[in-house]
């Protein structure tokens, strides 16, 4: 009796295992799978943040469907997983900040940007990210943070040069800054407990920290780095472009339309955010949204690259002709 | 029976006390309720989520990865363990390698798993299988080593074939070890499944915890953590029951039953 039960259980489990193994294979650009309606299936690697709202709006509004594309979104644990995911063909497209893309290029990974991601609002004091200090801190300007301990999300990445630039612009010397890596959700606690003198934080945590009376902004670092800075972009592998240029072209068109739509329909953006994040509607209605111009701001990337070289993040200027469309 | 009931009640009272403490701490202001919401709010969030599909999708994804990883690890460990354990030369040959590979924490492989497979379920499965495999293998090896040499030689004298020897001599001795290994492997596999979801990003409770966290939804994070805890308790209960049933004839279980 027991023996038969055990045998049945075991063989069932084995079947489940065998059946389950095949369901997650990476889809290279090689032979793009097509859905029931004959549409191209693409997987986009993202992180569940405000910045990627246009993609979800584009799906909701049918901009991808119009171009015969079925988009599956896949949330990666962090931006660091997205580039290997695109490189290996697990993702057809990915979303990443431009410094990560430049660093990937410098390490020999062949990627190409296919659409703009998101930009700073360009308005000092009203951006989607800012350098914040505790409410009771004596610091009034970024110039006083030259020897501070500053928490950033990822060390040796985009936050590093933009925060240094804020200090420089305010008239300080950023040489003595000590950066510590703290995930965005923990930055409020880092400020409250005095683990950091300042944090560089983006939405929704900028609003949460402000609403909770824990911190206040002293600089808008995206704005300080370059006018209308392009922070992140959608990209793919050069292999994908070689194998399926038509699909890439249609993705770019759909994404461009989605960006323009997001820029003009604030309410739709705030609504869609609550569908793919766990943000409360109240919070989603309060946060400062990034700007989503349809075109990538290449001049801002050149400026950002200069800063990154100056601060030792990059050894030489990136080949933007190869990286950008 | 009444003693078991007594213990169950005490256990539940302890849990309720713990819940009350976590309710009181933020209300008394010992910790900020922004970092640790009171129990009532966490449970409220949990019931709210339980009414919607995404939570159940996440639970099934987690259970799926966990089950596949566990089955693969256990099957591989039992087969390899039986072979290695019954051939002394092989045992000596592999001992140092096993002792080197076994203590490597599975999470140390996460970056390698991502490079190998990209952020897909295979990456999470790799670390789940790795962690669970050693738990099981070591138990199988101990179980096989525990076979009474006299029984083994007797079976051989009676010309029992290798399969019959495994069935009638090795298995009955090794079964209690296998049951322990299974229970340990199941727990470890669940831990690594959620870890993999958190760090590789494959769909499941871990990924949902990450998403709640990056949306500033603190109560949501705790609600999902409670769900992972419930899964752990359920897994442990399940395998304890299986163990008790499968080994009802074995002294280690039999003596527990009051005469």
How would you briefly describe this protein structure?
By secondary structure, chain A is of the alpha/beta class. Chain A has helices at 2-21, 53-60, 79-87, 98-106, 159-169, 187-192, 205-211, 221-225, 238-243, 245-264, 266-276, 281-286, 298-310, 320-323, and strands spanning 40-46, 69-75, 93-97, 111-119, 129-134, 149-152, 178-181, 198-202, 215-219, 230-237. In chain A, strands 2-1-3-10-4 form a five-stranded mixed beta sheet, with helices on both faces. Chain A has a five-stranded mixed beta sheet with strand order 7-6-8-5-9, sandwiched between helices.
What does this structure look like?
- The complex is a heterodimer of chains A (325) and B (259).
- Chain A has 325 residues and is α/β, with parallel strands linked by helices.
- Helices cover 42% and strands 18% of the residues of chain A.
- In chain A, the strands form two sheets. Chain A has a five-stranded mixed β-sheet, sandwiched between helices. Chain A has a five-stranded mixed β-sheet with strand order 7-6-8-5-9, with helices on both faces.
- In chain A, helix 2 packs across helix 10 and helix 5 crosses helix 13.
- The N terminus of chain A is likely disordered.
- With 259 residues, chain B is mainly α.
- Chain B is 81% helix and 0% strand.
- Chain B has eleven helices and no strands.
- In chain B, helix 3 packs parallel to helix 6 and helix 8 packs parallel to helix 9.
- The longest helix of chain B has 38 residues.
- Chain B starts with a helix and ends in a 5-residue tail after the last helix.
- Classes of the chains: A alpha/beta (325), B mainly alpha (259).
């Amino acid at each position: 009796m027991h023996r038969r039960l055990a045998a049945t259980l075991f063989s069932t489990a084995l079947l489940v295992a065998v059946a389950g193994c095949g369901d997650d294979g990476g889809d290279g650009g090689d032979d793009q799978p097509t859905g029931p309606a004959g549409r191209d299936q693409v997987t986009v690697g993202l992180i569940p943040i405000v910045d990627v709202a246009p993609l979800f709006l584009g799906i909701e509004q049918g901009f991808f469907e119009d171009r015969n594309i079925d988009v599956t979104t896949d949330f990666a644990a962090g931006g660091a997983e997205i580039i290997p995911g695109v490189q290996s063909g697990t993702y057809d497209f990915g979303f990443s900040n431009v410094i990560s893309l430049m660093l990937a290029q410098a390490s020999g990974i062949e990627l190409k940007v296919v659409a703009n991601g998101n930009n700073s609002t360009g308005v000092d004091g009203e951006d989607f990210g800012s350098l914040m200090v505790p409410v009771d801190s004596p610091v009034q300007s970024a110039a006083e943070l030259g020897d501070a301990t500053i928490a950033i999300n990822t060390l040796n990445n985009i936050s590093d040069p933009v925060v240094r630039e804020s200090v420089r612009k305010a008239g300080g010397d950023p040489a003595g800054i000590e950066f510590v890596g703290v995930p965005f959700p923990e930055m409020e606690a880092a400020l409250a407990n005095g683990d950091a003198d300042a944090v560089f934080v983006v939405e929704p945590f900028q609003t949460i920290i402000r609403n909770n009376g824990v911190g206040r902004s002293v600089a808008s670092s995206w704005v300080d780095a370059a006018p209308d800075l392009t922070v992140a972009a959608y990209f793919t592998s050069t292999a994908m472009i070689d194998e399926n240029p038509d699909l890439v072209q249609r993705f770019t068109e759909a994404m461009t339309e989605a960006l323009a739509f997001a820029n003009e329909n604030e309410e739709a953006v705030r609504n869609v955010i609550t569908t793919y994040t766990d943000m409360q509607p109240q919070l989603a209605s309060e946060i400062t949204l990034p700007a989503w111009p349809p075109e990538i701001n290449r001049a801002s990337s050149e400026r950002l690259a200069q800063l990154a070289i100056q601060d030792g993040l990059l050894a030489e200027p990136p080949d933007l002709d190869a990286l950008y469309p | 029976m009444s003693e078991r009931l007594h213990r169950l009640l005490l256990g539940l009272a302890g849990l309720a006390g713990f819940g009350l403490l976590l309710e009181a701490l933020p209300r008394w202001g010992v910790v900020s309720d922004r970092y640790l919401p009171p129990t009532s709010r966490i449970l409220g969030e949990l019931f709210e989520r339980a009414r919607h599909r995404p939570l159940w999708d996440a639970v099934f994804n987690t259970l799926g990865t966990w089950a596949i990883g566990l089955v693969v690890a256990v099957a591989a460990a039992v087969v390899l363990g039986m072979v290695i354990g019954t051939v002394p030369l092989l045992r000596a040959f592999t001992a140092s390698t096993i002792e080197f590979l076994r203590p490597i924490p599975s999470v140390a492989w996460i970056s390698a798993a991502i490079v190998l497979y990209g952020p897909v379920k295979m990456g999470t499965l790799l670390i789940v299988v790795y962690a669970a495999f050693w738990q099981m293998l070591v138990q199988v090896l101990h179980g096989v080593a525990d076979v009474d040499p006299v029984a083994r030689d007797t079976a051989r004298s009676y010309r029992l074939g290798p399969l019959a020897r495994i069935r009638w001599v090795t298995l009955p001795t090794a079964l209690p070890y296998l049951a322990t290994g299974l229970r340990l492997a199941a727990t470890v596999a669940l831990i690594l499944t959620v870890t993999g979801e958190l760090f590789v990003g494959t769909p499941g409770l871990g990924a949902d915890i990450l998403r709640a966290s990056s949306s500033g939804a603190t109560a949501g994070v705790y609600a999902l953590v409670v769900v992972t805890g419930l899964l752990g308790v359920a897994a442990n209960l399940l395998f304890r029951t299986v163990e008790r049933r499968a080994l009802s004839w074995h002294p280690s279980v039999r003596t527990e039953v009051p005469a």
